[in-house]
Amino acid sequence: IIFLPSLAGFVGSDILAGVLACGMDEHDEFTMLVDLGTNGELIIGNKDGFLCASTAVGPAFEAATISCGMSALPGAIAHVDIRDGKLNLTTIGDHPPVGICGSGLIDLVTAWLRLGVIDETGRLQGSEDKLQVSPNVKLTPRDIRELQLGKGAIATGIRILLEEMGPSKQPETVFLAGAFGNYCRIDSLKKLGMFPFPQEIPIQSVGNSALRGAKLALVDFDATWRRIEAIIEKTRSVELNLHPKFTDYYTESMFFPVLCHEEKIALA
Predict the structure, then answer these.
(1) Averaged over 218-240, what is the pLDDT?
(2) 264 inside domain
(3) What is each CA distance from 45 to 142, 230, 242, in whole angstroms?
């Protein structure tokens, strides 16, 4: 059994395999790989070198700390749309909603933001202390704050890495890895302010890039190992919490963006 090496203390071999799978080490253009999980992992660079970092996202994206959160099982709210000013819920297996999973949470908070139910601070715009989504599912202010903490951690990590790279080395493409990133709607993530870079930069879901990278090592181990050694040699780990503006950036990143008029919808 051969294990691929890690890139840093909390940036594991899954990210290294993702770099291999996406060919990030073989191109002149700068690209970024983002793995959304309990431990958010980030890497940016090109064939000349990389910066990587890890950020403590927490389990909110997996809905583990959400009052009505659940895994992506039958009955979980997986997506939320707005139709005629009202919420339209899509559940896994078309079962009656019994809880909400991570992708549904992202869509739901985005919808509430567009409907004016919550503001950019995450505060409920009314006298209720919770929001009823369906007869069996509700969200509380604490649930919304858990999401803000998670998205703030990712946005802060991206912001610091981009700052470390410099303005002339912005990514031409951002790869979103992992199961959560594969099932989430990228537009919802953007509206929540997850990605603090120009909106015209394309974001591409790449699914299980770690598995694809591992397959490359199995098919041609010698060639892949040479790539691995080169990647490790030219990768620098960034300790986000040591950045002088980490706390300020994190606080700012917990806020939701102020939506433009075209993105807002009147509540029915």
Answers:
(1) 95
(2) no
(3) 36, 13, 21
Q: Are residues 112 and 182 in the same domain?
A: no
Domain total of the chain: 2
Say yes or no: 36 and 72 in one domain.
no
Q: What is the mean pLDDT of residues 223-242?
A: 96
Model pTM? 0.92
CA-based radius of gyration for the chain? 19
* Cβ proximity of 157 and 122 under 8 Å: no
DSSP H or E stretch at residue 228: helix 221-233
Asked if the structure places residue 151 within a domain, the reply is no
pLDDT confidence band for 127 (50 / 70 / 90) = low
Beta bridge partners, 88, equal 81
| φ, ψ dihedrals at 191, nearest 5° | -65, -25
Cα–Cα distance for residue pair 34/145, rounded to 1 Å: 22
b/e code 184-206 from CB counts within 10 Å (16+ = b): bbbebbebbbbbbeeeeeebeeb
Residues 51 and 72 placed together within one structural domain of the fold: no
